Each structure stands twice: as C-alpha cells, then as structure tokens.
Amino acid sequence: MRVTILGAGAVGGWLAAGLARAGLDNPGLASLGILARGASLAALRAQGLVFLHGERREAFPVEATDDPAALAGADILLLGLKSHDLPAALPLIQRLRGPGTLVVAVQNGIPWWFLQGFGGPAEGLTLASVDPGGALAAAMPVDRVLGAVAHVGATVAAPGVIRLMQQDRLLLGDPSGRHPGPLARLVGALAAGGIPAAAVPDIRREVWLKLWGNSNMNPLSALCRADMRAMLDDAGIRGLVMAMMAEMAALGDRIGLPLAGPEDPGGERAIADRIAVTRRLGAFRTSMLQDLEAGRPLESGPLVGALVELAGRLGQPVPTLAGIHGLVRLLAAAPG
C-alpha cells in the first residue's frame, strides 16, 4: 500500500512515523512519501523523520520531495492539514490524487464530506465555514474518502521532528461503505507501526463526539489563554462549557446524531461524564490556544462556525455557540 502524506505536522508526522515504522519491519505493508518544502524538506532529507516519545528517539528514512508528480497516484492520500487550510490546498491535493486514490483527512471539526449521504434534514448541505462554494465536496465526494478521528497530543519540536506527549486512539471509518478492503489495510499498517488504530462502523458519530469537546474547550481556551484544568476549575467557564455542549446536543438530536439516550433527557448526565473525561487530561493546552500563541490562523470556522451555520440553516437556536464564535472571530481579527 502506497501512502502519500500532505501536512506532516504534529498529527500527520505522528502517523508518518507509524507508517515508516511498519514499513521497516514489513516493506510490503506500507511505503511512504511525504510532500514537504523549505526547512521541513531539508530536515527530512538530512536526518529523516525524527520521532520523540519520552526518552525514546527514533529516526526513519523517508521519501520526501517538493514535487507532487513524484508522489501522485498513491493508494492513500493522507491529509494532515488544518481544516481551514484545505480549500487553498485543493489544487495541490488534486495533483497528488490518482483515479484510485482514497483521501484520508485527519482534522478537527465537521469535514467537508460529513453531510453527503447523511440523510435527514441536513442531507447534502454544504457549509461555507468548512467548504466555501462546495469545491472540496465536488472534488472529493464521500465515496472517495475514509474518515479519521485522532485522539492524540503531539507537537512539532523542530522541522522534521515530532514529539508525542500522549496517544489514545485513531479511529477510522468508511462513510460510504464502499472501501472495506483499503480501510482494513490502512488500519493494519498503522497498528503494525504502533499507532492505536481501529476501524469503527459509524465514523460520523465519532467525528461528532470529538467535536462535542473541541467546539467549546478550543475557543474558550483561546479567549482565556488558559489550559483545560484552569477553565474547568472556574465555575463561570464551566457553565459556558455546559451551555455550549447542551446546544450542540440539541442540534445533534435535530439532525439524527443524539449524544444522550432517552434515559438522560437533556443530556445532563452525558455532559457531566464528558467533562469528567476532559478533566482527566489535566492541564492540557488546546490546539487553538497553541495556534494563537504561535500567531497562526485559528481553526474557529470548522470547530464552531460550522455548528452555528448548520443550526442557522435548520432554524435551531444556538445563542451561546454563536456568541463565542463571534468573540473568537474578533480575537482572530485583532491586530497582533
């Protein structure tokens, strides 16, 4: 199985290390190519992909190039880019794809393919917060996609150097149900390389469940400049988290993705359980807070704006989500 990675940053680099490790032990299992440029390309060529975890240091020789033609037509094109970077990257993505290439996007928020074949009142809606003009959905329809949800903490320590803090699991699924073979091969290759990967029957539900936490903790952390422990220790911030989660739960009920069962009306128990899980992560700094501190664009559109937009299209009130999204938009636009 040939895999090309576009966006070998924190999460993409974590997966690249796993695939490279699997390929060393079994060259027939996975071959890997990374599209890179600048300092990252120079580092990958000079020292390989360096992977740090605790006291452990590994360096994997990888095929790295800035020429898309050299990596075009792989079996899997793995996108490690941020959601808001995908529309601008579409021409490059198209140059990397071949007729048989499946696209795997490891991203936060609602992905462009999420509502294709979804059913219910949200069937086929295109969200400008995620996919302006519907270009991504037109170029990469759901039947050419494998979905992915990563529960991992990793950073780019230096060009070509990935540091893993913690890894929980990588969930992969086939939203169209047309590619069980490639899905199984990809999961097998990742697992062989030490990635806790698993196939799930309903990848949309896993995307929605992760977003239930990301849609509140990420923007609030950017507004507060605080880690998750500090935010949840503050009664006022905790109340905002609970209000945002309740609004998203009601939106999930509306579109057919309930987050709580009939025995938990209003989802109060489910919200409390999710907050308890978040507390166990400790003083974790969210990706949006890290982006803010590094001066990078904030991923507020796919994480919060998409929910506000979807709710607006369906006439579902989400005043807290809308207010927080407005504050983050103003924060992102502020000078400096």
Spatial extent as radius of gyration: 19 Å
Using DSSP, what is the number of strands?
10
Please state the overall shape, judged from the principal axes of the Cα atoms. Answer: globular
The CATH architecture classification of the largest domain is: 3-Layer(aba) Sandwich
Count of discrete domains: 2
Pattern of helices and strands: EHEHEEEHEHEHEEHEHHHHHHH
Round the mean pLDDT to the nearest integer and report it: 94
- Report strand %: 15-25%
Q: What is the CATH class designation of the largest domain?
A: Alpha Beta
First-to-last CA distance: 45 Å
Largest sheet: 10 strands, mixed
The residue ranges in which pLDDT falls below 50 over 5 or more consecutive positions are: none
Q: Number of helical segments?
A: 13
Helix content: 40-55%
Structural class: alpha/beta
The CATH topology name of the largest domain reads Rossmann fold
Domain Ketopantoate reductase N-terminal: 3-110
Pfam family, one: ApbA
GO molecular function: 2-dehydropantoate 2-reductase activity
Protein name: 2-dehydropantoate 2-reductase
Describe this protein's structure.
This protein has 336 residues and is an alpha/beta fold. It has 2 domains: 2-201, Rossmann fold (3-Layer(aba) Sandwich); 205-329, Orthogonal Bundle (N-(1-d-carboxylethyl)-l-norvaline Dehydrogenase, domain 2). Helices cover 47% and strands 18% of the residues. The chain is built from 13 helices and 10 strands. It has helices spanning 10-25, 38-47, 68-71, 86-96, 135-139, 180-192, 203-224, 228-233, 235-255, 268-279, 287-294, 300-314, 319-333, and strands at residues 2-6, 31-35, 49-53, 56-60, 63-65, 76-79, 102-106, 145-158, 161-173, 197-199. Strands 1, 2, 3, 4, 5, 6, 7, 8, 9 and 10 form a 10-stranded mixed sheet that branches. β7, α5 (135-139) and β8 (145-158) form a beta-alpha-beta unit. α7 runs antiparallel to α9 and α7 (203-224) packs across α13. The chain is globular and about 50 Å long. The model has no long low-confidence stretch (mean pLDDT 94). It is an enzyme of class 1 (oxidoreductase). Residues 202-330 form the Ketopantoate reductase C-terminal domain. It comes from Paeniroseomonas aquatica. This is 2-dehydropantoate 2-reductase. Keywords: Oxidoreductase, Pantothenate biosynthesis.
